[in-house]
Amino acid sequence: MNKQQIMSDLNTIFCQVLNKTSLELSEETSAKDVDGWNSLTNMQIISDAEKHFNIRFKLREIIKMKNVGELCDAIQSKVSI
Amino acid sequence: MEFLSLPYIILIIFAFVLYYAKANYHWQRAVLLLSSVIFIGYYHLMYLCVAVGIALFTYYAGRLLYLKRGTKSSPYILAGSIVALAGGWLAARYWSPLFPLGISFYTFQALSYLIEIYWEEEDPEPDLLNFTLYMLLFMKFLSGPIERGYDLLPQLKKAHPFCYENITYGMKSLVVGAFMKLVIADRIAPFLNAVFGAVHGASGIQLLESTLLYPIQLYADFAGYTNMAIGFGIMFGFKLSPNFNRPFVSITTGELWRRWHMSLSFWVRDYVFVPLSAETRRWKSWGIYFSLLVTFTAIGVWHGAGWNYAIYGLIQGLIIIYETAAAKQRDWLQNHMLKQIYKPLFIIRTYLLFAFSLLFFRIEKMSDICYVYQHVFDGVNTSLKETNLGMPDFNWIAFGIAVVLMFVFEYFNSKRDLLKLVTRQKVWFRWAIYYVMIMLIFLFGAFGVEDFIYIQF
Amino acid sequence: METKDNKVNIGNKTSMRSMISKFYLKCVLIAIPFLLLIAYYVNKDPFLVIRPHNDYDHSTICLDEGAASWYKYKLYRRSQHYDSFIMGTSCTMAYRCEDWNKYIHAHPYRLFGNAEGLVDLYMKLDALDKQPNQPIKNLLLIFEQSLLSKNYMQSGPCYLMPPDVSHVSWLYYQMTFLQDFLDPLFLVPYLKFELTNRYEHSMKGIINPYGRSHFGYGNDAIYPNEIQIRKMGERYWQGGYWYKFGKRRFVATPGKEFSRTIFKVQQYYLRRIKEICDKHHTNIKIVIAPILERRKLNTKDVAIIRKVFGNDNVFDFSNSTDLSVFDKHNFYDGVHYRTVLGRKIIDAVYNKKYLMK
User: Fold this and answer.
1) CATH class assigned to C65-350
2) N or C, which end of chain A is more exposed by having fewer CB within 10 Å?
3) Residue ranges in chain C modelled with pLDDT below 50
4) How far is B335 from chain A (nearest CA, A)?
């Protein structure tokens, strides 16, 4: 699975959780750039992403993710294994 | 030592002059350590012993955690240290005849330091003196902000040459803080204390009025204190974390807690809520609700050993759960309502919820809290004159203007840094502002009313 | 290279030094006007609150009379052995210690305050009780509706009592007066008077143009209007204040009462006052002052006072049936009355010659 595709899947998940019609996500996008992306919605996004890609993160991995790019990388490394 | 007391002013002047006598890292660290030791020991020698003891314990626990990283024993070391620190804090809270000042704040700082090392986000500080200073630094010792190791420790490792601009900026922040504390919080404090201290003697309208004004008093008190702490920090070359970001413009209670006592709420978010909600994310929304309840009850209990505090936290948790569950309906309202109506409506709603839940925070006796809830809408008892709570009319006018001034200042300050803007004005205008501010504090401040609300936590 | 570096370094150091001294200089500069004003204030002590003084009777400014009469009491208590006190608002001016002493034969002192409230009165009595070896043989309390209506201790530079009475911190007490001093509404007229030594109408309520305001060891009042009456005679009650309010306002309105004034808090303080009296076996007399309008204190309030202090010790002149009490010649204005009436009231109280029956 390439990064582009993960990004576009993530975009759909974000829109669903945050109840938005469209979102412009880039690798540098972090919680402070997106209205409604906070500690409450973050865990929903991660849990939806886990289900979607059929993976499972460790707590420490979740804490390390600081922006969309890092989330993307983490997913890619898990999926490709 | 209160910030606005003679002993503290003498200490700070001596510390400042000595600190900048030599722009040398070892010298400056020695001055800061000495001032912090005097500052803490001035209250009680026991406080100093406890604080230094906890600093030493945390320092060595951090090194041990680092050495055992990746081994099976590391979770046990972390758990043991947390139990020891939390146990010490609980013992002080419930059983000790003396509650060491600031212990809630520096225990949290110690916990975050250890957890970050365990999560391998941070490496331990090798220098014992640096670490002790990180724990004891006097400007934030009493009531925070609760600093993270990665924010403050690097700042302690270098010399701070005299920077004219920073120092005067810090002094301006100090003046803003003093204004909030003296002109707003301390002005009204005795009158609200009288009502909350004897709720049965107050009329309905007085109870209502005090309930509605208390958040403003608490805010001006704590944010004023934090502004002063940050100002003192800047004067010594440090950047401390902000604690408030205009909390009363929040649309939701969730947002309010991202703007209110931020160094505490971010702490519980990172070290309680995130791990809990990650562990329970399989339960979907229920996991988040559960984590919210635990987190906010923890915030409540952190403030004190009474059921009222636990309930205060629980109410916050319940409100935020409701808000999370009703997010879709709120979005719908937002899209179908005029922004000019939607925003004020929700701001007022959030304020009211906060004000009424704060009663659990302000009043310790449950029967008194119930009394307030039963009688808050009773209205006038004898005449409308009782709404002045015994405070002279002139003071009310000064108080009202000061509150408006504070909110207006904060509004414009959020658009652009007003303190920096002052620096760019012509000399005569700048000095006029300084004199007016000093005169205002002198004339309208309530001096000698010595209580800082957050000192007891 | 090395020398050059050194030079740069030295240059930096000197500029740093000069910057630091510039900063300290500015700090001093910004503080100078305040320090000067404060030094001037401490030197002058216009409110007579910083140091003990030898004279509390001749003040340049209108004083916090509550504090001043407390200080004067402390100044003379050793030599005069005070044991009897007249307490109340400025309306106590009608009661002369000399007149009162004819009946009690003791060492009286008038311990009053500006627009005193019931709680202020209690605080003062409590402080008296706590003074070492202070007997309280006789008390003459002058009650009015306004005094009874205040259910809190008054603060502010006109009313605040010294820390040993009010239990506020020393800093709070001193800052109250210093702040009032720095208030332009006070400072400007005050400095103007200090410079010119000439009284202007704009200084009313701030500067005391009459010189002496009370006298003697008993702290008896000197009211400038008495001098005016002596000068003007009957014309006093026709011009000025009396003319402004016209006849209509002061037409007697018998039977009209104030609404209820005494609630829970006031009852509490009345009982506390009674407790102190019991402890000292005080002979207490309470006068409910007459006012020109003939508006009487609420019957229920009077009943409460009577219940606490006993029927025989409470004298309600606001409801006096002897209409000569309300003769305008007894009054300076609507509420302040003259020693003529004061004497008459004292006589009625101690000879049990009720002016109301």
Assistant:
1) alpha beta
2) C
3) 1-10, 357
4) 12
Number of residues written out for chain B: 457
Within 8 A of B431 by CB-CB distance, chain C residues are 30
Q: Is C173 on the interface with B (CB under 8 A)?
A: yes
Is B445 touching C (CB cutoff 8 A)? yes
C173 DSSP β-pair partners: none
> Which sequence spans correspond to the domains of chain C?
1-44, 65-350
Q: Which residues of C touch B439 (CB under 8 A)?
A: 182
Question: Chain A window 7-66: which residues touch B at a Cβ cutoff of 8 Å?
Answer: 19, 38-40, 43-44, 46-47, 50, 59-60, 62-64
* pTM as predicted: 0.78
- Measured CA to CA, the distance from residue B362 to residue B213 in angstroms comes to 12
CB atoms within 10 A of CB C227: 11
Predicted confidence (pLDDT) per residue in B81-95, tens digit = 999 999 999 888 877
Pairing of strands C108-112, C84-88: parallel
ipTM of the complex: 0.88
Determine C/B contact with 3+ CB pairs under 8 A as the test. yes
Contacts of B273 in chain A (CB under 8 A): 39
| Exposure class string for C209-218: b at 16+ Cβ within 10 A, else e | eeeebbeebb
User: B187-237 pLDDT, tens per residue?
Assistant: 898 889 888 988 887 888 999 999 999 999 999 999 999 999 999 999 999
Q: How far apart are CA C146 and CA B124, in angstroms?
A: 69
Nearest-angstrom CA–CA distance, C95 and A6:
95
Helices then strands, counting H and E runs in chain A, come out as 4, 0
Give Cβ neighbours of residue C139 (< 8 Å, ≥ 6 apart): C84, C85, C87, C125, C277, C282, C283, C284, C285
The class of domain A3-79 in CATH terms is mainly alpha
Across the interface, whether the CB atoms of B119 and A46 are under 8 A apart is answered no
In chain C, residues with a C-beta closer than 8 Å to the C-beta of B20 are 20
Subunits close to A (at least 3 CB pairs below 8 A): B
Cα–Cα distances in angstroms (integers) from residue B218 to residues B188, B295, B362, in the given order:
10, 22, 10
B249 touches chain C (CB under 8 A): no
